[in-house]
Amino acid sequence: MADVPFVDLAAAHAEVADEIRAGFDRVLDTTAFVQGPDVGAFEREYAAFSGAGHCVGVASGTDALELALRALGCGPGREVVLPANTFVATAEAVVRTGARPVLVDVDPDHLLLEPRLLLSAIGPRTAAIVPVHLYGQLAPMAAIAAHGIPVVEDAAQSQGASQDGRGLFGRLAATSFYPGKNLGAYGDAGAVLTDSADLARAVRLLGDHGSEVKYRHETLGFNSRLDTLQAVVLRAKLRRLTDWNGRRRVAAARYAALLDGLPDVTLPAEATGNTHVWHLYVIRVPRRDEVARTLAEMGIRTGIHYPMPIHLQPAFRDLGHAPGDFPVTETAATEILSLPMFPHITEEQQDRVATALRKAL
Fold first, then answer.
1. 168-186 in b/e burial notation, b at 16+ Cβ within 10 A?
2. Which end of the chain is more exposed for a tag (fewer CB within 10 A), N or C?
3. Pair (231, 297) in one structural domain
4. Looking at the DSSP assignment, which residues form a beta bridge with residue 106?
5. Angle, to 10 degrees, between the axis of helix 228-259 and the axis of helix 9-30?
6. What residue stretch is flagged as signal peptide (predicted)?
7. 33 lies in a domain?
8. In which domain, by residue range, is 43 found?
9. Residues 148-197 pLDDT 10s
10. Same domain for 245 and 210
11. Which residues, 6 or more positions from 276, have their beta carbon under 8 angstroms from its beta carbon?
């Protein structure tokens, strides 16, 4: 019997293969490999999908965060507040601007940034707050925005998610189209969303060598542009994203029913007002590493998002933190386990996951 994969990119590709092949042929025929028409078309389509005024395609999600922060003026001598429970790229993007990450702990129920801890983290050098919309749902944006600090949303895991009917709250939002995302490219890609024409222009300048006119450079920029072939992939998948997110919600509800009442298992919770898109289905279990090994032996592939918090990473030892500084994040890091989740997961695969988890526990 075949293993249950953690994510099945082949099934998603099969659904869009003919459309993407035709798009690739179109790009190859025109040789418009950089800044081709599909890039602009995708930017308009994704902006409309997200309820944003502008979308600027870039080379990766990490670049998207960095360029969004730079557009707001983040740099040396400034600070950016972000949750301790996130992928390293969130803090990495801050450091790449020259600013300093300031970490705060997360709430124990949803593992999202805890707004009540922001007051102690905000200071005179705070340039931005970066809430992370983790696992497929938005952080509590009203409470975060209430502090009056510019917000850059890390929306890499929340494509299509909303809160109280809105998808964009911050001055800017950055997303990743890494292949395993709800909207995934066939390589690295990302985008910045904003309602501000000025900020969109600033991001676009920064990502294209500081230039709007060839060989005239208004500012020092970078080379971070969305590849035309990736735009073809993203356009094809975007047409299916609402349906695919709906399938994820059905799968999440089925997991909740299958795993309800299972001793020692804490199921993920959807925060009030959120429309969750279930990028990941993250449970919490004791003896997590042992459970994961046993599941792997039974052919169930899982993930851990994330096993080592940022403040305990060797790369961030200069922040001066020690074990115990962010207790909710640290406890979660020993318990969280991401189960297989993708739009094409079958009921039989979910049944196998639930059966194996009972045995593993």
1. bbbbbbbbbbbbbbbbbbb
2. N
3. no
4. 113
5. 170
6. none
7. yes
8. 9-235
9. 999 999 999 999 999 999 999 999 999 999 999 999 999 999 999 999 99
10. no
11. 135, 136, 137, 161, 249, 252, 270
